[in-house]
Amino acid sequence: MTAKEISHRLREKMQSEVERMQFLLGLNGFLKMDFSLPSESPERAGTKGIKWEKIDFARYLQQGPASRFYLPAAQADRENLRRLVTARSPRWIERAVQEAERLCEHRIEILGHGSLDLGPKIDWHRDPITGRSWERRFWADYDPVHDCGAGDAKTILELNRHQHLPRLAKAWFLTGEERYAREAVSQMQSWIEQNPAHVGIHWQSSLDIAIRAISWLWTLFFLLPSEALNDAAARRICRSLFEQLDHVYRYLSIYSSPNTHLIGEAAALFMAGILFPELKRARAWRRVGASLLVNEMERQVLSDGVYGELSSYYHCYALDFYLQAIVLAQRNRSPFPAHAWTKLSRMTEFLLHLTRPDGTIPLLGDDDGGRALALHTRNYRNFRDGLCAGAVIFRREDFKYQAEEFAEETLWLLGADSWRIYDSLTSQAPADVRSFHPAAGYFIQRSDWGKDGSHLIFDCGGLGMWSGGHGHADALSLVLFSRGKELLTDPGTFVYNCAPEWRNFFRSTKAHNTVVVDGKDQAKSAGTFKWESQSLSRVVQEFCLPGIEYAAGENVDYLRLPGGIVHGRRLLHIKPDYWAVLDDFRGEGEHRFDFYYHFAPDAEVELRSGDGRQRYLEVDAHAGESGLLLFLTASDPLQPEIAHGKTVPVQGWVSALYGEKKPASVLQAALTARAPAGAISLLTPLPHVSGRVVSRPRAAAAEAGGAVACLLEHKGFRDYLALSTSDGSTEFLGFQMEGEVFWLRTKDGALTQLLAINARRFSGAHGALFENSEPLPYVWASFGDEGIVIKSSDAEVSRKNSLAFCYGSDAQLNHAEQTE
Prior knowledge:
Helix 2 packs across helix 9 (231-250), helix 3 (75-88) packs across helix 4 and helix 10 (260-275) runs antiparallel to helix 11. It contains 20 helices and 34 strands.
């Protein structure tokens, strides 16, 4: 710790010990919070020190804070908003009423646990899964990560974020049914009765308090001016609300959880400071909240717009908090600096590319299961409403394309005019199917932007900032989605607390689509949210060529092993048809390399091994109308196995949402070989109709001296790939090649395209296409009737030799293909 951190923690500890003494002595009174109201206010008070008891709170909320909130304050405007929803989307009202009826019966959906019955009288300390209650103690005496006496603390904390209350209040706003308002007010009042200041687990986490405070704010302003929210109720609720906000202010997660915790806490303080400027204490909330939001955006959001913990779910959290704070700031003429708007735009752009054709996002890193604001959607498996808001704020037609329909959340956040703005935008697919985020190490590639398109993410990043608390040991992993289905999946999170074996599995290397060396994780766990060291991964190379995209990453975590292994993984996208994954392992000695490919729970998977020497294997997988041909060949024999829902050891599980897990198939292919070694995987998404794969390609291993090689017959072409496992020359299809990777496309026995990567030479019987003293990052050549077109990373490559090369060496290629 720095001296500054030590000083901060000491002050915080002294402060909490004073509160503990007050708690033990029964002096747990309300912190004095004077108001400063102008003389023309409804209370006709002076400008200094207005007593709490002298304020008509329902009237104060209506005539002051309501005018600053997202929702309209004037009754005529609120009625116009209701009419707009009734006219344009009556189904919003229907589903709001249906949920409100369930909530009045105390049936609430929590995380991945489904609908839970809380009983006729809600006990806010009772875990609805285990039925056990959390002991009432002083707030600082809880350790939610390790205290599992009543169950996983995440469950009870999620319930007490009260994100169902704004949805209940929204039903009153849309229908005027007073029963819904009474239930919302009753639940808040019962919570206040059971949770006096500083007592119980619900005062332990500042982030959870902040999210509850945001939920209460939306509930209050939806309910104005219902009969249930009278002066007494409004006064009592606001008293507790302000106590909770001030607790957040005193115990910010500046050093304990300096991530989305701090962003969420800052957002709640800033919002409250904007809404309640008459409250003297709120001025400090606003000042500190604004400062933290600006500083943390610069610190926690990378230059390419990706949230720094490298968790797709927590990226949505951060974006959601910032959307709420910046929109409210703009509404109240409290502008954020231009660089904050730029970062917000980049964060939304990343979400655009992260989102798959069906609107879902892959779960890279940890999945919290909740939301910063849940006015309709309850989690971030789909965050199209964030794209919808971004389309309105930034007038982005590509955001609208990916968001599709206008989102209910956008209406509440940005007002009735946002619907008109959204309608005025033309829906336009983004120009580029590729997105590279160098600071995060993410490559996102698509076949196209259509509904049936394929979407792949290649992760060359590490564990994320600081201790990598929400990152997984998933360097060089990938996920694949096609034709509306997840084919190769990131297994997710399942749980944080009370199940260390499951927690360790879901964040382990073997739970991801990458390679495990000698049975070791890339990084060693040091606790639920800690790693012993950062993962050492980086982007090595990337480029785009006509019809081809290439990306390469490198992980050196396994240098710690005897013989020191460096894992390199290259991804070659032959657009739009397939991906080639090329793995090489540089080092010394014999090692075991376990390749893992995880399939979605609803995928049917069939393994077919190759020849008797096990040089290659094929897997057919399909889910619904989507299929995948996975072909894997290596420098030495492979030992494949399909696991499904194993518990000893844990393997073959997928969690789509926190608290839920399902058995799923996973391919584990073991390669035992001396380094250097290598392997090639071909991933070919295919349509699957009536139990059969349509237009099935053919893949096979190929002979190449000193290299791993294969071919793929597809759409009238023969594509050949060779990955060199040595520094020497490779003989392949009658050509002499010196380099790391070669891809050749032939049609009717003639060479039509060539790609050489990190290569010195490519030659045939009639001469050299290119030859260089140093490896060239890439050389691409297209052969046609009118000659040869060459693109190279080095402008000095000789075209003279190229033109002399006999690209139509049909006899060579035909002979090579016939003797395979």
